[in-house]
């Protein structure tokens, strides 16, 4: 399975909670960056062990929907030229409702994008302003309606929870409305205060009070119960999908499969010699200089040994409802899961379930995932 992640690091404004690599970009910068992306694609295609044809592509950011239809189509043509895209490939673009129009969405769909991930985040205007989002609730609703009109039948909606001063009734109202749009996929993210972000600084200064653990748990379970009752499969800690609508690209990450990365700040993985992770320099000037000189702008982050690979495998797989298949674990690593992780299994026995060859956490385990998984890594 060939997977490709492309990072578009530009935003109209920086959200105060976001710690992803992004910059407030002008149109000329974006135009120039698209040319660098095409150079990056060409250079990456000459490297060893790259997929000959792609099954999943994901445009992430930043705000990829700042790309014009022509720019997106140009990048996709370049990918087809140097890699190839399978006819049944999943091609996703993340989009901000404040950057969309029906015309643009139709253009994206005609260019080949078949999965749209909309950063709705909230259906309350006050909370959207609080989060520094550029769109309104009206624009969020309109973007969903326009996406359907443009022909998108695989739609993912993001919703944030545990926001400052948010209560259960407010969250219930938002998830209830979100479900009226019948998305194929829903991602839910609890607000976190990452070091280096504006929200982190405000929290440290006592200007924002974070959600307490009890309320956070109640909110997470409310979302779980609402979505499962509506027919969604809670297939990963933060992700829910209708049957046959699981995000294929994200499953590449959780299965620890090969993923090529293109664009400044992008991260990739190769499943060779226990695996290696690498990233593209998160510096636009350095990125451009490397590509102009014909150099591959990637840097090795980590080369794994077997011990590190087993720990990461457990960390990623236990995030999913399928969990770990102990036979697959043995095929991959030549060791028995229960032998390698005997102490961790004992410490998490009240949350780690067994069903046939599977070992997995349920939603109650996911609530304290960081605590539980620390025993495995």
TrEMBL record:
Primary localization class, coarse: cytoplasm
Radical SAM core domain location: 1-233
Listed GO biological process terms: porphyrin-containing compound biosynthetic process
Entry superkingdom: Bacteria
One example GO MF annotation: 4 iron, 4 sulfur cluster binding
Needed cofactors: [4Fe-4S] cluster
UniProt signal peptide: none
Compartments it resides in: Cytoplasm
Entry keyword annotation includes Kinase: no
Entry keywords, A to Z: 4Fe-4S, Chaperone, Cytoplasm, Heme, Iron, Iron-sulfur, Metal-binding, S-adenosyl-L-methionine
SUPFAM superfamilies: Radical SAM enzymes
GO cellular component: cytoplasm
InterPro entries: Aldolase_TIM, Coproporphyrinogen-III_oxidase, Elp3/MiaA/NifB-like_rSAM, HemN_C, HemW-like, rSAM, rSAM_sf
NCBIfam families for the chain: hemN_rel
Family label: Belongs to the anaerobic coproporphyrinogen-III oxidase family. HemW subfamily.
Name this protein carries in UniProt: Heme chaperone HemW
Native organism: Desulfuromusa kysingii
């Amino acid at each position: 399975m060939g997977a490709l992640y492309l990072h578009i690091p530009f935003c109209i404004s920086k959200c105060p909670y976001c710690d992803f690599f992004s910059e407030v970009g002008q149109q000329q910068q974006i135009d120039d960056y698209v040319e660098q992306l095409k150079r990056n694609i060409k250079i990456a295609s000459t490297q060893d062990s790259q997929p000959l044809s792609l099954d999943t592509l994901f445009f992430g950011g930043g705000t990829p929907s700042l790309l014009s239809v022509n720019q997106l189509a140009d990048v996709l043509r370049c990918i087809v030229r140097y890699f190839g895209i399978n006819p049944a490939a999943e091609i996703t673009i993340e989009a901000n409702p404040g950057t969309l129009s029906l015309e643009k969405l139709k253009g994206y769909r005609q260019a080949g994008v078949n999965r749209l991930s909309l950063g709705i985040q909230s259906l309350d205007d006050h909370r959207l302003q609080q989060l520094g989002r550029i769109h309104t609730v009206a624009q969020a609703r309109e973007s969903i309606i326009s996406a359907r009109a443009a022909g998108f039948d695989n739609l993912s909606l993001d919703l944030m929870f545990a926001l400052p001063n948010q209560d259960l009734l407010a969250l219930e109202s938002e998830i209830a409305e979100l479900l009226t749009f019948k998305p194929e996929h829903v991602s839910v993210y609890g607000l976190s205060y990452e070091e280096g972000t504006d929200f982190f600084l405000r929290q440290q200064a006592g200007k924002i009070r974070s959600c307490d653990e009890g309320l956070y748990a109640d909110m997470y379970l409310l979302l779980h119960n609402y979505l499962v009752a509506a027919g969604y499969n809670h297939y990963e800690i933060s992700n829910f999908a209708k049957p046959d609508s699981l995000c294929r690209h994200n499953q590449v990450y959780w299965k620890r499969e090969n993923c090529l990365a293109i664009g400044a700040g992008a991260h990739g993985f190769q499943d060779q010699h226990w695996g290696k992770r690498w990233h593209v320099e998160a510096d636009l000037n350095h990125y451009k200089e490397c590509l102009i000189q014909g150099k591959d702008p990637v840097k090795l982050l980590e080369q794994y040994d077997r011990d590190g690979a087993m720990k990461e495998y457990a960390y990623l797989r236990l995030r999913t409802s399928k969990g770990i298949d102990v036979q697959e674990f043995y095929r991959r690593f030549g060791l028995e899961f229960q032998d390698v992780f005997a102490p961790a299994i004992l410490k998490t026995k009240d949350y780690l379930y067994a069903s046939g060859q599977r070992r997995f956490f349920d939603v109650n385990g996911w609530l304290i995932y960081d605590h539980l998984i620390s025993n495995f890594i």
